[in-house]
Amino acid sequence: MADNVLVAYGTTNGSTAEIAEAIAEVLRKEGLTVDVLPARSVPSVLSYDGVVVGGGLYAGRWHKDARRFVRRHGKALSERPLWFFSSGPLDPSASERDIPPVPWVQRAMARLDVRDHVTFGGCLREGAKGWVARMILSSGKGGDFRDFERIEAWAGQVGQELTHA
Question: Which CATH architecture has domain 4-163?
Answer without folding.
Answer: 3-Layer(aba) Sandwich (3.40)
